[in-house]
Amino acid sequence: MHAQRAPVPKPDRLLATVAALMCAFESGDLDAAMALYADDAAFYPEPGQLLHGKAQIRPALQSLMALKPRMRLHAHVHAATADIALLHSDWEMHGQAPDGSPMQMRARSADVLARGADGQWRIQVDNPFGTALLDLPAAA
């Protein structure tokens, strides 16, 4: 007898996780944002810098929230199985730099979400800068 597999999720369910993260950022709710990450998540706060686990991710998100961000996001599900999904998002953030001056960032993200044992989708890999993180060696 074969175990019944969970169905492939509807895109709206996955996109709701990303939308909830944007809402948490804009409202400055660090706890709500952290609840959306898997315990062993990976996060790239900037190109070339990789953080692992919630203990490392939390202060990075807190620093981003200090910018008082306003986000625009257009996300879509690139691929999904019953328990893992790859999302791409075009995002733009407007905020306030530490010196009070206005700042703006934008990029195309590549994020992996995973369904936990409790059935909730959480961010497993948060790569806001997508392929900008590639640091490939020169061809020989």
Beta-strand proportion? 35-45%
- Give me the count of strands: 6
Number of helices: 3
Parts with pLDDT < 50 across at least 5 consecutive residues? none
Describe this structure as you would to a colleague:
The chain is about 25% helix and about 40% strand. It is built from 3 helices and 6 strands, in the order H-H-E-E-H-E-E-E-E. It has a 6-stranded mixed beta sheet with strand order 2-1-6-5-4-3. Strand 3 and strand 4 form a beta hairpin. It is globular, with a radius of gyration of 16 Å. The model has no long low-confidence stretch (mean pLDDT about 85).
List the helices and strands and how they pair.
Elements: H1 11-27, H2 30-34, E1 37-46, E2 49-52, H3 53-65, E3 70-80, E4 84-96, E5 102-115, E6 121-127
Parallel strand pairs: 1-6
Antiparallel strand pairs: 1-2, 3-4, 4-5, 5-6
